Protein 1
Amino acid sequence: MARAAVQRRLTWLRARLADNLPESPRVRRLVFDVPDWRGHLPGQHVDVRLTAEDGYTAQRSYSIASPPEDPRLHLLVEDLEGGEVSPYLTEEMQAGDDLELRGPIGGYFVWSAAADAATPADQRRPVQLVAGGAGASPFLAMLDHARRAGDPTPVRLLYSARTADDVLGGDLLGPETTVTLTRGAPPGWRGRTGRVDRALLQEQTFPPDARPRVFVCGPTVFVETVATTLVDLGHASSAVRLERFGGTGDPA
Amino acid sequence: MSLVSRGFGRRRSATTDDRLPPGQYDTGDRFPVLSAGPTPHTPPAQWDLAVRGEVAAPQTWTWEEFRALPRESVSVDIHCVTKWSKFGTRWEGVSVDTLLADAGVQGSHVLAFSDGGYTTNLPLDDVTNGRAWVVDTYDGQPLAPEHGGPARLLVPHLYFWKSAKWVRGLSVTPRNEPGFWETFGYHDRGDPWREQRYSGD
Ligand SMILES: Cc1cc2nc3c(=O)[nH]c(=O)nc-3n(C[C@H](O)[C@H](O)[C@H](O)COP(=O)(O)OP(=O)(O)OC[C@H]3O[C@@H](n4cnc5c(N)ncnc54)[C@H](O)[C@@H]3O)c2cc1C
């Protein structure tokens, strides 16, 4: 286990919204200027803090969707009906508005070209990404970064989305990506349909004997199910890293 | 000197609850899950619990031996660093005081270690004098694997990552040694009332 201690203080930073763009019918891309940002690694997240007039505050975590090379910080936020924070971020916030955030947070759910550089290209363990819904966000940072850095590490993304319109990151997804749609496919759809189950994982991800480094991100139930299946298929537990976004279906 | 977010207001329960530490919300009946890797499934026959490290007499208990130790029931509020809190959770298990009683502890801290390689560090003061347990029962039922079963540490006065799931023992250490999340920048102690989420808080 890496012992790279990240022992520095995380202070709240002022972030100014530069753009609030539709990424899909349910997800907005929030683009921030954060003057005091000290950089991040692909896979890390920020904590966002909102403060009401009466002093009430709410904090939530959001993965960073942009690579370290991008001077602006991109978040992909799903508008959850009835939610306290996500509807505010997606519907209320306009360019020029400020909020507070701090980060980068999390040093475990990370894949960066710099971390790979120490290992000769032909000895690198491949990277397998598995996303559910908005869980694609940190993987867009990883893919974008790997591409810009010219990282030759073999990588695949298996990405479960509801419909074709819900797929995030459009242009960034290349031949490494297999999308599966869980709520029906449009005419002419050439990807997969149905949930990420054992058969799909066997068919569309690196096998255990390729010793991939596996990252799974999305709603808690999705992550839990996929992780269990991967271990059943023979992946070492220590090779599987998880990021859970939460969600109504949490096991009670 | 917080920045006020124009038009933002509380959407959760309007009453402030003095059981809620700063920055937390009440998750109600839900019990969210957080861990860095897949859930291990260790059968009782392969499970044991150890106290080792800076002790005069290392200890181990098989599952049956552990189940035969004096048990306590606790009802406590728990607080996760991912912002949810859950009130009045009911657990049963063995006090850490009981586990350390015959070990002859010589160090100042413990590093809890778990199946799957997870570790977390705690000062001895935070796990003794009735402040910590190894629990195997939640709400009257065997603790489910996704919540740390067969047994987890329970240190309710600290953020819940300190309550190591799938715990297999306590290593007594002569000084503070950062555990898993602590190495990645999470706070060494993790007191929710002081909002000690990350290193330096
Ligand atoms: C490390 C981490 C990274 C995250 N990254 C992202 C990200 O990149 N993009 C993103 O959109 N979210 C992300 N999340 C989730 C995010 O932090 C919030 O939980 C989410 O935006 C809901 O907040 P809210 O205040 O709108 O809803 P709340 O008021 O907290 O909840 C409202 C309702 O929505 C349900 N709900 C809460 N979270 C989810 C969920 N994830 N999916 C479905 N239902 C839910 C609740 O059960 C509740 O019924 C991340 C969470 C973590 C822990």
Note: Confidence is low (pLDDT under 50) at residues 1-7 of chain A.
Protein 2
Amino acid sequence: MKPPPFDYHAPRSVGEALETLAGAGEHGKVLAGGQSLIPMLNMRLAAPGHLVDINRLTELDTLDVEPGGVRVGALARHARVERSEEVAAAQPLLCQALRLVAHPVIRNRGTVVGSLVHADPAAELPAVLALLGGSVRLARPGAVRDVPAAGFFTGLLESAAEPGELAVSAFFPLLPPRSGTAFREVARRHGDYALAGVAALVGLDDDLRITAARVACVSVGPAPVLVDVTEACGHRPPASADWASAARAVQERTAPEADIHATADYRRHLTGVLAQQALRDAAREALDA
Amino acid sequence: MTTKLFGEPVRRREDPRLLTGQGRYLDDLGGDALAAAFVRSPHAHARIRDIDVSAAIDVDGLVAIYTWEDLPALLAQPLPLLIPHPALTHGRTAHPLARDLVRHVGEPVVMVVARDRYLAEDACALIRVDYEILKPVVGVEEAAQSAQLVHGDVPGNVGAHLVQEVPSAAGLGAREAIETAPHTLAFRLDIERSASMPLEGRGVYARWDADDRSLRVYTSTQTSTSVRMAIAAKLGLPLPKVEVIAPDVGGGFGVKIVHPWPEEVLVPWAAILLDREVKWAEDRREHFVSSAHERAQVQSVRVGFDDDGRVLGLEVNILHDHGAYTPYGIIVPIITSTQLLGPYKIGAYRVEFSSIYTNTVQVTPYRGAGRPQAVFCMERTMDHIAAHLGADRTAVREVNFIRPDEFPYDQGLIFQDGRPLIYDSGDYPESLRMLKELIGWDSFPEAKAQAAAEGRRIGIGIGCYVEGTGVGPYEGGHVQITSDGRVHVSTGLTSQGQGHETVFAQIAAAELGVPLERVSVVTGDTRRFGYAVGTFASRAAVMSGNAIALACRKVREKALRIAADALEAAPGDLEIVDGEVRVLGAPGSSIPLATVAVLSNPLRYAFDEEAARATQFAGTSAFDRPPVEEGQEPGLEGRDYYSPLRSTFASGMHAAIVETDPLTAEIRILRYAVVHDCGNLINPMIVEGQIHGGVAQGVGGALYERMVYDEHGQLLNASFMDFLMPYATEIPRVETAHLQTPSPLNPLGIKGAGEAGVIPVSAVIASAIEDAEGIGIDRMPISPSDLFDLRRASTGRSTSET
Ligand SMILES: Cc1cc2nc3c(=O)[nH]c(=O)nc-3n(C[C@H](O)[C@H](O)[C@H](O)COP(=O)(O)OP(=O)(O)OC[C@H]3O[C@@H](n4cnc5c(N)ncnc54)[C@H](O)[C@@H]3O)c2cc1C
């Protein structure tokens, strides 16, 4: 379990990093927190010719609450985002999700942006980005583009980030007024990737009736599965909402696969249970908001 | 014993070193050594047609590549079959490097030596092995019926077949006893594969001294003395020219008792051939596919019993999955079939096992060594009987217990040491009473009803076991007191973190009457002690502990004799307190042990003032006697061995309360209680630590760990990402209580404690889940997904709605 040979680059500026990545093209890989990439290298599942380490790019170590949302720089670690009170106030779902990501030592190194680019269907943050309709900012020399979540997760462990591109930040929109969020999941062990998980967002109108109810599910497809259940909830106040039919609507949209940890049926069942719990929790938060 | 050290919860002296990164594990040694790496089979069953190394030759830093054809005659043979048994009619072991055929994924085919491990793995990746893929045999029941053979010359894939039968007191055989019993039940049980999984894998580091023509080998083993003999034999070296040392070892749990591993002979061989230091440190993936696993068994049970639940006859048929090879013989299924009886008197018993080859990693003992399967079988049987009769589960156990006045109790079987299975001592009714009190067994129905009223499901379970510990044949101890007053203790068996340094020092300090700080302990170093068996079967404290105590008693006797001369007193009037020999009742009249050590060694040359007291003109010697009297030896040291008549039998009972989530089917352990009896406690804190660790491994086996092979013989979860060892967050607080029924078999009255914690856990958790769910549990481990399936099957519901 030792990586195959590669050239190691440690650029001192984003410009230098972009040039290096552009030069390496297909053969380059960004090294951020390394919590996913290093195991893949050691198991020789990845064999990039050039590794571009962005850990010295302090200009990317940013976390800003902007008027429209939270912008997370590529070097902001999970732990920093998780513990930020400003972020918790602006978009609580980020913190709710990050508490479920791995263990503290991994969160001390892993990055939010790295997790999005890695695009693991069992990971929490892609579901958060998808649910909130956020975006990822990708850069190459002389060009920057923002890719909305809907187009970012293109397949199993695949994102819209092209070879030679650096993801410089991610943007998570603010929580609208009278809204609440929740993240519920079941993992085999504390901190493991979830067998199934559901992020939910519920918004209420001035009469405290449900005007928006959406969920994003993890581990039930090659990418986060986004389901709008506003209709199923039936524009009623949370206390009389039909959460069960909302959950069924979610289940109908999922096509989980079996693996050694769980059958497909069990995953679908869990998704229903968790969708109900997450929607109820989110609605409660919305009422408290 | 003069000091109260024996029985005290002394803090582990090895911990400051091990917990602050001062430990020296195998891979901490030999920083400049060449690195070995292996090309291992990616196929479960295949014929090697050709090995092409040409692409690897150009790797910068490559030193050597070896295949089976390069091996000298002794090494080219199959590795030893360590424990032969008449029933093991078709024992088979692997070659150090595969010859023609590979029989499991992970089998070593080519050894590469390079400047470092990175380059060695680069070279491995470039070696092309051309395989003709053969149909693999996977799954123990499939293998037992398959026409496909793992070894062409082993019909039916049956390596061993053994029947043991004990008739009832009235002379009935088990089948007859079952047939004539008022009630009979029959059922089938399954236990899946798990493995020892020490955090430090295996590893070997060899240094050849060409001038001295001697070899030193460090290896992460549970038996350095036996590895030494194996290396000397396999490499054709004189035994005195081989030293083997077990450095700090980061866990063993059984897998490191197997020896010699291919790497343990290949690495030293390459070191000699290349005249360079060579090291191999196993990585995690290698550990999964090329060391050893355990547990997998399928059991068929038939039991006959009376209206009180008293077992009149029991018949058990075991299919034991042995993997591809049997280097450790049939110890595991023998232990399962003999320890199955637990604390019970069974009317008539018949047990039969077949040890089946499959194209998977070999099966050798893992902590508990066949007992978790045995206890699962017997305790599920007890629960089945209770359910059938509508009786309390503890009441059924109670009527079957061996009573305290029935010891020694002969179970009529032959145990894993080839000697009769005779229990030495115990008090099972008292143990059960303590456990019921600890967990609150009698008041549980109220708690359960209360939980049900809140929409929660909880259940309680119990499991009892008896564990043969401290098996022979022997261990030894050596004790030397040097002229600085320090006490040096050594024993041949090895340590993997159990706390031997502390416990053996406690025994020596107590026996000799010296402060604990003066005692140092060395284990597993053949330079210090050459005769030993090894660390397994919960035997270190019983075997080496008693041997060290006996050696100390010899040294003490000698010290008293020499001191008696110096103090002009009778040896019987002396005592040793705090490192001083004193005349009883005359505290002013004393001599330090350090001085006794000086006097014990008559000198011609002095190198310090202390030593001067023992030189020839110091006026201490009598002219009518030689300086070293006949039958005596210079020096204050002693060596002794302990070789027991039979094993000692520790026992225990566990209970757990679990909660199952009605919606998600998650399983949570709310409470876990243990009553444990290992005879006299040398150090209760260490015993509790062993129990905690054992329970943690047991929880892993019950709820998380399984080796998942697909039909091609590929291990699907060969990493810690997917092989789910529980974290601390999954382990409940363990509540313990101790019962002490001393063993009459050894001077210290102790029994083993190392494996106990793990043994009944699967049985206990199954019992508790069954109680919570009202669904029969006959296969472990169980995951939430499994429980979800069981629920659906039991309600006949086909939808997955909430
Ligand atoms: C034991 C363990 C448990 C875990 N459990 C969870 C869990 O429960 N949930 C979860 O979500 N995650 C989990 N993770 C993964 C963890 O969150 C990772 O940190 C994260 O997925 C990747 O972030 P990273 O910064 O470590 O990325 P790296 O490992 O450095 O990179 C991952 C991939 O993304 C690419 N990449 C990274 N940053 C950029 C960038 N700025 N621009 C372009 N490409 C980039 C890399 O090239 C690589 O392909 C776990 C990890 C471990 C080791």
Note: The interface with chain B takes residues 1-5, 39, 43-44, 186, 188-192, 195, 244, 247-248, 251, 260-263, 265-266, 268-270, 272-274, 276 of chain A (CB under 8 Å).
